[in-house]
Design goal:
Helix content: 40-55%
Number of strands: 8
Radius of gyration: 23 Å
Structural class: mainly alpha
Oligomer: single chain
Number of helices: 21
């Protein structure tokens, strides 16, 4: 058995209850015996509240990690041939009469998570810290980093959100994006200044999964790059380019994070030498120096992504060995598969080519079948019992008890963001960072390319394929360029084994933003305005 990190274990047993506030979509916490007024007294109470904030990192159906992959040019909606067209809303930009498709993330998780973070920060002064006063600053820094993460998810996907600044706030109109980004950046700067400067090698494995100074530095750079690209600005509110560079350089020089030697070792399929046939390729595990921030999972708190994006079909157990079936969402585009250069190990590491690999999945129950399936987050069979899944071997109740962590930021992202930002001021350093990532991918130094904005953008597409990053990388190239990348004209797919043509006309009027759930517009009685084009 694995996964005894403090976050994973405690999150299973915390009963996290808070009084609800008075208005609409923030009314998501049940009113029960523990309330804001009487609950917060000891450091242990604050710890349970912090764990409640972490507890909303994982998503379910409609999770924005899945949405961002489908919305990118790497994936189509997929799913079952006779399913409703829910997934297609995110790649075809039409509502298909489902006006509530994003309710799972808008109110059920993200605004709920924001409120939990508010409660934590508001109640810290009510705690009797005794000799544990250092914990107050640590918990506030973690809470504010998580709050920044949740607000950033809301802002970059929906574009026009109300900046709710307290747990008991009344609903307010949507806030100017600059004010939202200023709030996010302020929280991230607080986290950077107050989280410990502990290197990865010196950090306790028991705390793996908690946010760190290095994760906050990576996220503030990610926020800077998206804001300046999407809005066409030279700096972000409260954050200059030089500050963003300095944060990344500090992470590179002092964090102790590093690339693992081989790309394939990042992903669990690498432990199956009977599959890939390379005895020198071994699984690095999830606690490795490349992982800057991840969502921790266990068989008791599984990662649901595998269920959604596993290859479609219910064959006899073991027919798809070494992989297990799922629901077939986010099918892989031929464009994505064909974009990888010969010799780039990331293609085999990331994509299952069903025909070439001899896996008898013919797409008979699949919408938008292409013959390709993502590999990074794919449940595996047990090598000693092909009719059972790995999660079952680890004590899970079924194949859906997938314990693989979800990576939110890797060290290669730190390197490529630094390369992009250093292009104008220090081109040799930008080149060196790009070379590090590309040399690892090809396992030699013979495939280097000159570091430019375009070559780094392309490299990010290969490096982070199916990791929820590509879509917003595309958007920050500008909406006109995004349309050129995301539009699809008569691409051949198979729906229930019948040939069809996939077309996508990315609508500039929608600005790449998701539909706000219609119920929230109605609840607000006109205070919230639907995003343009929806």
């Amino acid at each position: 058995m694995k996964k005894h990190s403090v976050i994973t274990v405690v999150s299973l047993c915390v009963a996290f209850f808070m009084a609800s506030c008075s208005n609409s979509f923030l009314d998501s916490e049940p009113m029960t015996q523990k309330t804001d007024a009487n609950y917060y007294k000891t450091p242990e109470d604050a710890w349970e509240t912090l764990v409640g904030c972490y507890n909303l990192l994982p998503g379910g159906y409609g999770d924005l990690f899945v949405v961002s992959n489908i919305a990118s040019d790497d994936c189509y909606g997929g799913g079952g041939y006779t399913d409703a067209y829910g997934n297609q809303i995110w790649d075809e930009w039409t509502d298909y009469n489902d006006l509530e498709i994003n309710r799972y993330t808008w109110s059920n998780r993200l605004f709920r998570a924001v409120r939990r973070c508010h409660v934590l920060c508001e109640q810290l002064d009510n705690i009797e810290w005794g000799s544990d006063t250092h914990l107050r600053t640590l918990y506030e820094a973690e809470g504010r980093m998580l709050r920044a993460y949740f607000f950033y998810e809301l802002q970059r996907f929906f574009g026009h959100i109300p900046l709710i600044k307290s747990s008991d706030s009344e609903l307010i109109p949507q806030t100017d994006p600059d004010e939202v980004y200023a709030y996010i950046i302020e929280d991230l700067k607080f986290a950077i200044n107050n989280l410990p400067s502990t290197s990865f090698q010196s950090a306790s494995a028991d705390n793996f999964g908690r946010v760190t100074k290095w994760a906050a530095q990576g996220y503030i750079a990610r926020v800077y790059l998206f804001y300046t690209g999407y809005y066409g600005k030279s700096d972000a509110p409260g954050l200059t380019k030089q500050e963003a560079i300095a944060y990344l350089e500090d992470c590179i020089q002092n964090s102790g994070h590093a690339l693992v030697p081989r790309y394939g070792s990042l992903w669990p399929w690498s432990r199956r030498t009977d599959y890939h046939g390379d005895p020198t390729l071994t699984y690095a595990g999830e606690y490795n120096p490349e992982i800057v921030f991840s969502i921790r999972h266990s068989t008791q708190r599984p990662n649901q992504l595998h269920r959604y994006t596993g290859m479609r079909g219910i064959p006899n157990a073991g027919d798809y060995d070494p992989f297990y079936p799922g629901w077939g969402m986010a099918t892989i585009t031929s464009k994505c598969f064909n974009s990888f250069a010969e010799g780039d190990t990331r293609r085999f590491a990331s994509i299952i080519d069903l025909k070439t690999e001899g896996i008898p999945n013919d797409g008979s129950d699949q919408r938008e079948f292409t013959g390709y399936v993502q590999k990074k987050y794919q449940t595996q069979t047990d090598p000693n019992n092909k009719t059972s899944s790995y999660p079952q071997s680890s004590g899970g109740s079924s194949w859906q008890s997938e314990e693989q962590d979800l990576f939110l930021m890797r060290y290669s992202d730190i390197l490529l963001m630094a390369a992009e930002l250093q292009l104008e001021s220090n081109q040799p350093k930008a080149q060196a960072y790009l070379d590090m990532v590309r040399d690892r991918a090809f396992e030699d130094s013979n495939h280097r390319v000159t570091a430019t904005k375009e070559s780094i953008f392309n490299e990010r597409g290969f490096e982070f394929v199916f990791e929820g990053i590509r879509y917003h990388d595309v958007l920050r190239q500008g909406l006109t360029r995004a349309k050129e990348i995301l539009d699809v004209k008569n691409d051949i797919v198979w729906n229930g084994k019948q040939q069809a043509y996939k077309n996508i006309d990315f609508p500039l009027i929608k600005e790449g933003l998701l539909r706000i759930p219609e119920s929230q517009i109605q609840i607000s009685e006109g205070m919230l305005v639907q995003n343009p084009g929806w």
